[in-house]
Amino acid sequence: MFEVILKGHDKYYGVTDVVRLFFGVPEERVEERKVIVADGPDITLVNALFEDGRSVTYFGDKGYEFKGELLEPGREIRRSLYMALADITKKDMPWGCLTGIRPTLVALEEKSAKDLEDKYFARSDKAELAYITSREEWKILSSMPEESLNIYVGIPFCPSRCEYCSFISSDISCHMDRLVNYEAALEREIELISKSIKRPISSVYVGGGTPTVFEEREFAALLDSIYSNIRITPECEVTVEAGRPDTITRGKLEAMRDHGITRICINPQTMRTETLLKLGRKHTAEDTIRIYNQAREMGFDLINMDLIAGLPYEDPEEHVRSTKKLIELAPANITVHTLYKKRRAAMSREKVMGNTEDSLDDCVKESYRLLMEAGYHPYYMYRQKDTGHGLENTGFAKGNTGNLYNVAMMSDARDVLSFGAGGMSKRCFAQEGEAIKHRVERCATIKDALTYMRRVDEMAEKKIEFFEM
Questions:
Q1: Between vectors from CA 387 to CA 344 and to CA 439, what angle results, nearest 5°?
Q2: What is the three-class DSSP state of 95?
Q3: For 137-155, what is each residue's pLDDT tens digit?
Q4: In whole angstroms, what is the distance from residue 312 CA to residue 279 CA?
Q5: For the chain, first and last CA: distance in Å?
Q6: pLDDT score at 349
Q7: Parallel/antiparallel/unpaired status of strands 376-382 and 393-398
């Protein structure tokens, strides 16, 4: 059994984050002041924090301690523990001891990419990626007034459930009757809350699930509700995550165009049809190209396309081939995700994490190189736990086409009002003396769509109180 004994602190979250990088999902035993991995190697470490701010991780008679400028205690205990585990296992992680969701927030604190290498042991290419992306994020974030509001409209339904997904979305083949009622509930919530909104709106994002899963009439009605209730100025960015090509019709594209929407997402995930079908998606690579071309012909110039690296049923090299095919299509944005183990997904952790060989890492690096060579630049980034090879998700954009909502959502520095089941609204409060970090308060919406429909008035009132409207 692998175990880390905590001494002089109770920062279990930081310890588990680092242990997870090397040995899988750990267990906290607070009463014993330790973190364990039951099926891990027979190793015992002591992770200590001293009153002077130093952290030392002991393995037998050997102590691991960073010799240099001290970080805040939570980062310091991660750093010494990472030093010990990297030495014991002879493994270096791409992001070193940077275990958080938003490495760009740390990068904003530093004067160079080299600082991320020296302080956090981030690999040089990741340090450079975080440093460059952090400046792009900050540029976009600075264009949004701090008092502005960003709006998310969530549709938790999909035409089928992908094997890797644990999203709360429901497979509509079993729940076709819910869609009309859910759309009506969304309209109700939007109408109730919008009357109280006095703030400017920076962005509106219609996401899911798959928003285009609605029939054309309900889809158009939802857009009508958004535009008739929410004050959308010419400066406001509106995005519709059209998502799966098999749900996108000419009528839905016309509805978006008629409302003035030019920014949509068409997400293939891979351009290999065999993989798509095995994952449970109901479209082909050819469908993606056909719908993309149709959207472009109809005037949609700002299109994002998602890819996932590390998918089962294909070699990592296939991700590079998919990237090349998307570059040929030349959408404004391409987002590269790395497959990660979602808690309720049908796909096993072994299937997700089994693809940790260097070839996945190399292929992601090659995709990044190709994208930047083609004129794309990284503009936002985030990381998730249990990701193959400890990698990240990065959005790339051409020119000034980066998505405002993505940056607002991931930065935790701008307020987000979320409509729909499972949505998470948040308020971000600037802290004295802090230019980057904000204190965040969150307000969750009921996840179950049926319960949300029954209690939509209650959810609306809850958010009005939360935002003090």
A1: 85
A2: coil
A3: 999 999 999 999 999 999 9
A4: 8
A5: 53
A6: 47
A7: antiparallel
Asked whether 162 and 279 are in contact (CB, 8 A), the reply is yes
**What is the dihedral angle through the alpha carbons of 407, 210, 212, 255, rounded to the nearest 10 degrees?**
-10
* Gap between the Cα atoms of 353 and 373, Å rounded: 29
5 with 44: CB under 8 angstroms? yes
CA atoms within 13 A on the CB side of 456: 20
CA distance 121 to 17: 15
Asked whether 151 and 416 are in contact (CB, 8 A), the reply is yes
Q: Which two tokens stand for residue 302?
A: 């700002």
417 forms beta bridges with: 151
CB 301 within 8 A of CB 331: no
Quick: pLDDT tens for 81-97: 999 999 999 999 999 99
pLDDT tier at 342 (50, 70, 90 boundaries)? very low
Could you identify the residue written with the tokens 């005037």?
A: 299
Q: Are 230 and 201 in contact (CB under 8 A)?
A: yes
Question: How far is residue 155's CA from residue 170's CA, in Å, rounded to a whole number?
Answer: 10
Distance of CA 284 to the CA centre of its chain: 25
Residues whose CB falls within 8 Å of the CB of residue 305, separated by 6 or more in sequence, listed in order: 265, 266, 267, 268, 288, 292, 326, 329, 331, 333, 334, 335
DSSP letter at 271 equals S
Q: Whole-angstrom Cα distance, residue 221 to residue 111?
A: 49
Q: Which DSSP symbol is given to 260?
A: T
- Residue 296 CA to residue 291 CA, distance in Å, equals 9
Angle at 106 between CA 104 and CA 112, to 5 degrees: 85
CA 57, 37, 387, 239 torsion: positive or negative?
Answer: negative
DSSP category for residue 245: G
Question: In a 10 Å sphere around its CB, with 0-12 CB exposed, 13-18 middle and 19+ buried, how is residue 324 labelled?
Answer: middle
Cα Rg, the chain, nearest whole Å: 23
Count Cβ neighbours within 10 Å for each residue of 17-55 and write b for 16 or more, e otherwise: bbbbbbbbebeeeeeeebbbbeeeeebebbbbbeeeebb
